[in-house]
Amino acid sequence: MANHRKQVVETRLAKFYSTINQAIKTAEADYGDANQWDRLEYGFNEDEDGNPATSKALAWFEKYLKPYLKYTKYEVDNNSEGQVATYFPDGSLMLISANSIIFYPSAKDYELLDGDTVVRRKSVSGTKYFTFQLSVRENSCYGGGGKGVEPYKCSWDGTKEMLLTNNSIGCKKEVSNERAYCTALIQMNGWKIPKDYPLRF
Fold first, then answer.
1. Global confidence as pTM
2. Residues sharing a CB contact under 8 Å with residue 183, sequence separation 6 or more, in sequence order
3. Which residues contact 14 (CB under 8 A, 6 or more apart)?
4. Smaller CB count within 10 Å for the chain: N or C?
């Protein structure tokens, strides 16, 4: 069972990476270079009374990605960030907001975690969800612009060791934040989960 789950994760991670970046390239034909696009922002636009009205991420998604992706449905998550959950035909899900793009190889895992505490959700990072970053603007934190969607690599020194040992976001059992570097570790291994992967599926 664990081996099958690993294969599903590997296949869907590689497919998502290819599909999302192809969508960005196609959108660039219509909207120009992605580093000139509107910023992907956090939260909600407000109505005339100052109440949250429409998700900023939803407006960005509908303009730049929706026309170029095959999906079964999308919706705004009911949290303060205004994240957009996009369900794909293969059963996976993308959660997009200004801070990051979270990919769930199985949308069911996202639905099971909906409403759980932040601590509980972070405890399954690197196994049930994987962190990506929109990296289209020049920004040293994300390794420069023009790359589209990449595994989260903020502050990474380029070594496998740092991906495995960073105390905040490294791919290891105990971290203070989430295991954001796990996605980069899998990418570094050709989108295959390494034999010495520190987390169990």
1. 0.89
2. 13, 103, 126, 130, 131, 132, 151, 152
3. 191
4. N
Structure-block tokens of residue 77? 């998550």
Other C-beta atoms closer than 10 Å to the C-beta of 15 total 15
Instruction: Mark residue 151 as left, alpha or beta (left: phi above 0; alpha: psi -120 to 50; beta: remaining).
Output: beta
pLDDT tens digits, one per residue of 36-78 = 888 888 777 777 777 767 888 899 999 999 999 999 999 997 6
Structure tokens given for 69: 């992706």
- How far is 177 from 167, CA to CA, in rounded Å? 8
Structure tokens at 26: 């196609």
Task: Please tell me the distance from the alpha carbon of residue 13 to that of residue 187, in angstroms, as a whole number.
Answer: 9
Coil, helix or strand at residue 104:
strand
